[in-house]
């Protein structure tokens, strides 16, 4: 883990979201350091996904402020923050099942041309993206599956493919939404190893419900419960916090 990180790349102050009188996120302040892996965790219903959607601008806050690299992004749209280098993957795998793994990554790489994603372009016109696409597939452990249809991949490998397409955008800040949700133990181990390798040269913020998944992975962990920050610190600190233990009682924490 990286202990020598100081500069905050993503920060929130008093972040709040209300839905018809119900407060889903309540006065949350975060500071995600450059080059770190920061986990946002909590039991089911803790407000993690709502907070994540606020950070990535899929929801607008009721109150509070969000800054990215010192710029106020509180009221920007998702596409605007993505162009600035904040790119998220989704909890539910979002790949094109009728395309091969290689074709999925190649489509994402078209962004390098500064044009739209041209699904209809001839295969010959897209060949120049092949080398980079294959390299990204190798990075996520999918090299042998380059020519496999995405629909035929296992759930864990579909998630890895989704991460590869996200990496095609070369984001300095990668946001992962429940990257191990619904996976087998083997797939979980593969994704955890992948996240460790992906940290080189980028910052990672991940939402996760399972404390054991982020053990030994995250530099800093923020624990939410009922929309509020319950505890924050490294794994050793939060895993021994009596309030965190109580919040996770009966769940699948380590």
From TrEMBL:
Single GO cellular component term: plasma membrane
Example GO molecular function: ATP binding
UniProt KW ATP-binding keyword: yes
CDD domains per UniProt: ABC_Mj1267_LivG_branched
Designated name of the protein: ABC transporter ATP-binding protein
Record keywords: ATP-binding, Nucleotide-binding, Transport
Species: Acidisoma cellulosilyticum
InterPro entries to which the protein is assigned, alphabetical: AAA+_ATPase, ABC_AA/LPS_Transport, ABC_transporter-like_ATP-bd, BCA_ABC_TP_C, P-loop_NTPase
PANTHER family: ABC TRANSPORTER ATP-BINDING PROTEIN, CONSERVED COMPONENT OF ABC TRANSPORTER FOR NATURAL AMINO ACIDS-RELATED
UniProt entry tagged with the keyword Transmembrane: no
Domain ABC transporter: 10-251
């Amino acid at each position: 883990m990286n202990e020598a990180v100081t500069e905050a790349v993503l920060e929130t102050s008093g972040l709040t979201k209300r839905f018809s009188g119900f407060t889903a996120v309540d006065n949350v302040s975060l500071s995600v350091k450059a080059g770190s892996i920061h986990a946002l965790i909590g039991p089911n219903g803790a407000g993690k996904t709502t907070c994540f959607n606020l950070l990535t601008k899929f929801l607008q806050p009721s109150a509070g402020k969000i800054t990215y690299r010192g710029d106020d992004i509180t009221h920007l749209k998702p596409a605007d923050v993505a162009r600035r280098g904040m790119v998220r993957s989704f909890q539910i795998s979002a790949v094109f099942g009728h395309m091969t793994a290689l074709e999925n990554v190649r489509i994402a790489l078209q962004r390098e041309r500064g044009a739209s994603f041209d699904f209809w372009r001839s295969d010959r016109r897209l060949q120049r993206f092949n080398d980079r696409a294959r390299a990204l597939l190798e990075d996520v452990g999918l090299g042998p599956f380059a020519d496999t249809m995405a629909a035929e991949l296992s759930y864990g490998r579909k998630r890895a493919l989704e991460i590869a397409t996200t990496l095609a955008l070369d984001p300095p800040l990668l946001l992962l939404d429940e990257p191990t949700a619904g996976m087998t133990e083997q797939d979980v181990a593969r994704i955890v190893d992948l996240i460790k390798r992906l940290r080189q040269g980028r910052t990672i913020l991940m939402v996760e419900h399972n404390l054991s998944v982020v053990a030994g992975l995250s530099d800093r962990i923020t624990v939410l419960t009922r929309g509020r920050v319950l505890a924050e610190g490294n794994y050793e600190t939060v895993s021994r916090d009596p309030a965190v233990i109580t919040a996770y009682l009966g769940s699948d924490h380590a």
